[in-house]
Amino acid sequence: MKLFAENGYYEVVYDNKYYENLEFIRLDTICNKTYVTLRNVVTREMYTFDHNQIKKIRKKMFRLPSFKHRRDNVVAEEKEYSL
Fold it and tell me: Is 69 among the domain residues?
């Protein structure tokens, strides 16, 4: 359950259904069963999954723009091109 310690979005396959854009809400243990509650950030629906029946879970990775290849904003010289 260390996967849920970080913030981010998750994808889950549970009972042969695919769920995406889920954020972690809480983890409950009731009568030696662990339940995971997640919320879809798009539709705002809440889902509670039995941890043992989750077939696949993964953290969704996002690519952030690289600052290495960022183009500089070149400004024209004021004297020659000013109005």
Answer: no
